[in-house]
Amino acid sequence: MKFNKIILCTAFTALLYSCASTPKKNKLLESHANKKTDTSYLFVKDSNNIYFTVLQLNDVYEIAPVQKGKYGGMARVETIRQELLKEDVNTFTVLAGDFLNPSLLGTMKLDGEGVKGRQMVEVMNAMNFDLVAFGNHEFDISYKDLQSRLNESNFAWMSSNVLHNVDGRTHCFQKIKKGRKIAVNDSYIREVSRNGTTIKVGFIGSCIASNPKDYVSYGDVYLEAERSYNEIKDQTDLILGLTHLSIDQDIELAKKIPSIPLIMGGHEHTNNYLNIGNVKIAKADANAKSVYIHRFEFNPLTKETKVISELREVNATIPENKRIAAIVNKWENILNKKIKDVVSDPKEILYTAITPLEGRDTPTRSQQTNMGSIITKAMSSAYKGNVDCSIVNGGSIRIDDTLVGDINAIDVFRILPFGGAVLKVEIKGSLLSKVLDYGEDNIGTGTYLQTNNVTKQGINWLINNVLLDVDKTYTVALTDYLMKGFDIPFLKKSNPDIINVYEPKGQEIALDIRKSVIEYFKTIK
């Protein structure tokens, strides 16, 4: 579908006033890849220049600290934000996509309605976020839920290549405030003032087209970003990138628009800082384990732009802002109450992972991971090993992160927020082979399968190291989700090659896949 040119429908502008304080020199973290951080110069403020700061986050799904409280937490980020505002009132906060989903809280229901990122928007509103870019996970939720989050948000949204698709016709997404429709633009313009001089800072950016939905139309990530750049370049003094792309795509974008001094990106979940010609690319760690602080100096006469980028680890040494902590605690209490409906002690340490458990989307949807192996072994263990193999779709693993160190029940719920039963299914070998082929053919999607006791030798599947026999009947542990045919259309109880389906009942741990994983972790301590 040809992507329609977006007309800049509305402008979000805000006037900022300078403060006379000299910026503090924050210590860069030795533990967090400072070599990727540009510290070649520090600013000595010139009264003729404009100074401003951008606080960058990306891929934030959890409002509370992660890894047993060691890292992250939006209340800690707010403390950093307040420090930056004292340093320079010309400070604004942006997020480079992925915050509405996935999260354990987002899967919960409150007053009969799914949370679906409501907790993130409430916290971000309280923190006075300025701008977010669409990430691919924003489109995990339904259009109805996304529209609700847009309407609730007080911050601006932006994407150069994403449009709302309605029956084949595309237009800007919109937020509705007090009956007034406000367009989600393909760019964003912000005014910054100091000593009577005002400049306009523009933002452009694209979103990776990795989550196709009927209500979303993705344009070319490069062409649309270039178009947005050209549309606002004469209206602005300086243009920055705010993207949700792979690092390779950000590098290519930097080559195509070499006049952008900085691209603030997301998607990969691990911090990175690159120089591509004169363009810097910065990505922080997911779940606010770190943030980037970008300090700018702009000369209005020469248009020369300098930027110092500091990677700041968000850890337990940073006190929580009490106002934001109160909101986070409210939501965490809701979460803990819901989890206790399934397990009595959500914070019990189940296992200590020395090697990080890989739960990020890209690996779990394209290769067998150690987290996928643990889940499928747990499914087998739920039936005391009396199955030939176990299978779960990669899309059921929703944490989109790695886990290391102590793991508790809350972590298991974050990994498998939707729960569901583990079924024991008797299935003909011919159908099992077809199921495995289908999963392999859908590499890169949530239909890709994580397995136990399944390997491949050339073009042949092996079950427990023995060549799969198409005429044999196998006993397989499968999730009830897969057996509903959502991902694999022909995998249903009505298929004649399904001989029998056993559904757990009573107190059997197979009744909830999360219980199965929790109990399995206890056996491998």
Structure described in brief:
The protein has 525 residues and is α/β, with parallel strands linked by helices. The chain has twelve helices and 29 strands.
Describe this structure in words.
The protein is of the alpha/beta class. The protein is built from 12 helices and 29 strands. Strands 6-5-2-1-18-19 form a 6-stranded mixed beta sheet, covered by helices on one side. Strands 11-12-14-15-17-16 form a 6-stranded mixed beta sheet, with helices on one face.
User: Which term fits the overall shape?
Assistant: elongated
Could you say which structural class the secondary elements and strand pairing correspond to? alpha/beta
Poorly predicted regions are 1-36
Distance between the termini: 52 Å
* CATH class category of the largest domain: Alpha Beta
Q: Report the sheet with the most strands, covering strand number, pairing sense and barrel closure.
A: 6 strands, mixed
Q: How many helical elements?
A: 12
What is the architecture of the largest domain at the second tier of CATH? 4-Layer Sandwich
